[in-house]
Design a protein that fits this description.
globular; ribonucleoprotein; transit peptide; Tim44-like_dom; NTF2-like_dom_sf; Large ribosomal subunit protein mL45
Length: 305
Amino acid sequence: MMPLKRFHAVRTLYRSSQIGQDSSSYLLGSCRSYSNALSNGSEGNFKSFHSHLFKCHDGFPLAGGKTLTLRSTMAAELSIFMNDKRMLSTQLKGSSLSRAVGTQISVSSPGFIYEPYEPREKIPFWQRWFTRSGWKRTKQDVILELKSAYAIQKLRKSGYSKSRFYNEAFKMYKEINALIANGDKKSLRKAVTEKMYSALKNEIKQRETTWNKVYWELIEPVIRVRTLRARLIGVDPKDLNKVFVQLTLEITAKQKFEAYDSKGSVVAGDKNKEVLVRDIWVFEKSMFHPGAYWRLCGRLSPKAS
């Protein structure tokens, strides 16, 4: 009787976790540019360009306003994510520094991506429900989804809108890629975090030793934008409201590029061909500094998901 009850409990948790997987674009709201050329023709040149440019409590809120009630050991283990902010805050010394940038506030980033997204390997139904390892995996999946749901719920309390954020993120995606292609390091500084800026500056410098100029164009509208993960990072163990939020987005769009040498000759790419590119970017924002804005804090290598 007890195993049967436990099976039903685990099944309920798993179905709840599937909410995030089946409707991640609704629940969570997300790499390297030019990272995966998915079309033929200019694929080789496109990858060549990439290698030069980028080396480099009991209740938890869920999507749709549902609340999942957790009991026994599952509740104890899932409560770990509630303590993540406390544990991470010990790694960050003091409160974050901020500086004025026009009418907005630029806040010093924690400097790392918390729990970088990686696609979860699918497992057979029988293994998930009828083996100990499968139950363990289901529990881990639920924990990951609940962390994202909690972060999104906290964002919504501050006025977060998925559609508005997606529009803002896509504009940033287009702007940052254009700045990188043009080598505009001064403007780039305002759109990315400190660590990201340092990496991009070095990548642009290295690219300029090979190519004199780069043509880049984004074909609109974007094909798809979806959120893969949402996380919170605490900076003050005494105040859990002092957090940064990180949203990992997958952006799929068609692009064109062409690279030239010092003589103006084409050495890579073809601006007459569209290439389908899938990027995974991590955007970050302080939730305790009025006027703080979203910035790019990292890029992840796209993998099959």
